[in-house]
Amino acid sequence: MLNSAAVSRLLLLFPALLLGQDGSSGISVPITVSGGAFFSERLEITGQSKTPEAGGFRSMLYPTIKLGSHWFGYAAIQVRSNPYFYYDAYRPQYELYDDVLQAYGGYSFRAEKMTVIIKTGRLSSAFGSFPLRYDDADNPLQDQPLSYIQTLTLRDDQLPCGTTDLLHQPYGSVSHFCGGALGRATGVTPVTLYGLPGVEADVSGYRIDGRLQITSGSPADAQHFDRPAQYHQWTAGGGYTISQGFRVGVSGFRGPYLEPTLAPLLPVGTTVRDFPASGIGVDVQWARGRWSVTGEWQRFRFDSPNFTVSPSIQSTYAEVKLRVTPRLFLAARPSWMNPGRVVDKKGVAADNFALSIGSYEAGAGWWLNRHQLLKASYEWFKMEGRQGTRFDVAGVQFVTTFNSLNWAFR
Fold first, then answer.
1. Which residues contact 191 (CB under 8 A, 6 or more apart)?
2. d(Cα 217, Cα 235) in Å, to the nearest integer?
3. What is the pLDDT of residue 244?
4. Hey, is 260 helix, strand or coil?
5. Which of 147, 188, 210, 346 is most enclosed, with most CB atoms within 10 A?
6. How far apart are the C-alpha atoms of 118 and 212, rounded to whole Å?
């Protein structure tokens, strides 16, 4: 196993760097294609689907170019149908999506025994560790941890008036009353799995790895390149490999998350920079023999002008994988999200500004051969105060990976 998360990023994301010795430069395009189906009453909640069954597909393309021993370019392009992921079932509009998740250029070099990588463009967030396993062939289950997919009862384009405004807001359909965009919409996600425009430096060596990222927009508010007047902010992380297969890491971010259009509604003398979103996380990876475990603890806070104690969320997950045979594995991942205490400027307080959520997914995978994986899983979804299996999901997924399309040149 590699002893550095930064080096792991490089080797996982830049397959062109592994081109044969026949050429110092070249192009590589690994591809992952997945098809799946699931059963859940989530599909029927909005009335947009008349049956609890759905199916879809997803293709991931990773074009990479290597130019000499130092320069490279990389992209991650997603084409998928909706619904495909388990969380799509809440809004089952039958559509096709294409997303450029990442697209950047980079430069790598060695200094003493340290490896340094500089990247600029559209980057996955340097916060957390799960984004490295977003590909269906790397994720042993079919859903994702809650902090990366669950929307909150907070919005970046509206201001809540106070505690009462936050209470009883439904997940997925949020409307606040102290200014901003009109109507209801989905809230922010604590940390995005999609890319952010920015620049990043990764350093690794001596069992230590570190990364610093400056982006336009918050990990809780991913923006497109064509969005004007976004605010820069930082994300940083690092880790230490204690022994072979055992690494502990930390990461954090801080910066504005509110839309610039809300600036006129803020208290006199303040800007959106005075009300940042911040996050801190701890991640652990451990592997020995047939067992591997990974997990994260994260805490997020979203400062808002009408609160003395602003909304905060704690999120945790633990993923366990057992390799039963060289081809068969079992996996399980419990995940929790617990909203925190709030107090508004009128003194109105609540121990939790939203309902606590838990998801518990268990499944199995079978490698039919080196490039084809069949997965099945069941997810129990629990929300505070709600009983029954209406939000549970059962699904199957077939994943095919293709050998890189390689073109080497000098």
1. 125, 127, 128, 147, 148, 219, 220, 279, 298, 300
2. 11
3. 93
4. helix
5. 147
6. 10
Who has greater pLDDT, 13 or 155? 155
Please give the Cα distance from 91 to 178 (Å, whole number). Answer: 27
CA distance 302 to 313: 9
**DSSP codes of every residue in 299-314:** EEEE--TTEEE--EEE
Work out how many domains the chain is built from and give that number.
Answer: 1
The closest of 341, 389, 397, 340 to 373, measured between CA atoms, is: 397
Q: pLDDT tens digits, residue range 346-395?
A: 999 999 999 999 999 999 999 999 999 999 999 999 998 888 888 999 99
Q: Can you tell me the distance from the alpha carbon of 227 to that of 156, in angstroms, rounded to the nearest whole number?
A: 14
Q: What's the chain's average pLDDT?
A: 89
For 13, 27, 154, 221, 275, the CA distances from 271, given in Å and listed in that order, are 38, 45, 19, 17, 8
Query: What global pTM score does this model have?
Result: 0.89
Query: What is the model's pLDDT at position 409?
Result: 76
Range of the domain at 393: 5-409
Would you place residue 93 in the very low, low, confident or very high pLDDT band (cuts 50, 70, 90)?
A: confident
DSSP state of 165: H
Q: Are strands 291-302 and 276-288 parallel, antiparallel or unpaired?
A: antiparallel
In degrees, rounded to 5, the angle at the alpha carbon of residue 43 between the alpha carbons of residues 41 and 48 is 135
Q: Is the pLDDT of residue 124 over 80?
A: yes
Cα 53 from chain centroid (whole Å): 26
DSSP letter string over 173-196?
A: -B--SSSBS-S-B----SS-SS-E
Query: Helices then strands (H, E): number in the chain?
Result: 2, 20
Tokens standing for residue 395: 């699904």
Using alpha carbons, select from 214, 297, 191 the residue that is nearest to residue 249.
Answer: 297
Question: Residue type at 368?
Answer: L
* Three-state secondary structure call for residue 388: coil
pLDDT-derived band at 141 (thresholds 50, 70, 90) equals very high
CA-derived radius of gyration, the chain = 22
Handedness of CA 14, 200, 296, 313 (dihedral sign): negative
Q: What does the pLDDT read at residue 106?
A: 97
CATH code at position 227 = 2.40.160.10
What pLDDT sits at residue 223? 54
The pair phi, psi for residue 62, each rounded to 5°, is -125, 70
